[in-house]
């Protein structure tokens, strides 16, 4: 890992909701594949990407699918002793502790990109950080009942037009339309 940069990836509906009762409010199979593909994508096959998430997001992933495969999983919790994590999961008590761990030489050399995958406070902290680079945001064009929300997208973030890594064509699954959008933080 050369320069530590944080990229966020999220899907939010029209009221900026991201979650309900510990799960996603919708089922969009191809959107989940997009998440998986994007967060796994590496150019150097000897490296892996990191995913950083809050405790509720981690335990919201079905047990058979966590830790997220082919990625180094970091879970944030202020209570690491209270929960059981497989040995390959890195547990950190703060975002700073997580970022410090990533810069330890034995890990730093094995990492390509760092993805912030939610939820609310984890996104917010990353967005406020000087290390924040981009947000890959799926705009779900419908409203769902939610109890977890994406933070306010401030004017620090500008849309990246024609991002070559994603299609901006409107997608549709199960009668739900959505669009992939990219935002970049202006420093
Ligand atoms: N649509 C999407 O893209 C998307 C993405 C991610 C999640 N989600 C959904 O969103 C919901 C979960 O998000 P959420 O916002 O409710 O919770 P969350 O951020 O996943 O988890 C919150 C918990 O994480 C820990 N935490 C967060 N920030 C921390 C920090 N800086 N330092 C130490 N610990 C920290 C705390 O755990 P302790 O209480 O143990 O200290 C906190 O209670 C679920 O419904 C999930 O399915 C959706």
TrEMBL record:
Catalyzed chemical reaction(s): (6S)-5,6,7,8-tetrahydrofolate + NADP(+) = 7,8-dihydrofolate + NADPH + H(+)
A GO MF label: NADP binding
Protein keywords: NADP, One-carbon metabolism, Oxidoreductase
Keyword Oxidoreductase assigned: yes
Organism for this UniProt entry: Polypedilum vanderplanki
Function of the molecule: Key enzyme in folate metabolism. Catalyzes an essential reaction for de novo glycine and purine synthesis, and for DNA precursor synthesis.
Enzyme Commission identifier(s): 1.5.1.3
Pfam assignment, any one: DHFR_1
Annotated metabolic or biological route of this protein: Cofactor biosynthesis; tetrahydrofolate biosynthesis; 5,6,7,8-tetrahydrofolate from 7,8-dihydrofolate: step 1/1
Domain spans labelled DHFR: 5-185
A biological-process GO annotation: tetrahydrofolate biosynthetic process
Family according to the record: Belongs to the dihydrofolate reductase family.
Protein name: dihydrofolate reductase
Protein origin, superkingdom: Eukaryota
CDD domains xref list: DHFR (cd00209)
Cellular component GO terms held in the UniProt record: mitochondrion
Keyword NADP in record: yes
């Amino acid at each position: 890992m050369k320069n530590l940069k944080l990229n966020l990836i999220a899907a939010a509906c029209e009221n900026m909701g991201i979650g309900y009762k510990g799960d996603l409010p919708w089922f969009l199979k191809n959107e989940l594949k997009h998440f998986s593909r994007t967060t796994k994508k590496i150019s150097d096959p000897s490296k892996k990407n990191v995913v950083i998430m809050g405790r509720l997001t981690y335990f919201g992933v079905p047990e058979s699918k966590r830790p997220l495969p082919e990625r180094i999983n970091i879970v944030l919790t202020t209570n690491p002793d209270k929960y059981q994590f497989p040995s390959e999961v890195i547990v950190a008590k703060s975002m700073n502790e997580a970022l410090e761990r990533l810069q330890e030489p034995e890990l730093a050399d094995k990492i390509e990109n760092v993805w912030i995958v939610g939820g609310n406070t984890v996104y917010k902290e990353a967005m406020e950080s000087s290390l924040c680079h981009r947000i890959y945001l799926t705009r779900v064009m419908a409203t769902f009942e939610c109890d977890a929300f994406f933070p306010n997208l401030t004017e620090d973030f500008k849309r990246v037009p024609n991002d070559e890594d994603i299609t901006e064509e409107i997608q549709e699954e199960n009668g739900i339309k959505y669009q992939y959008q990219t935002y970049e933080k202006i420093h």
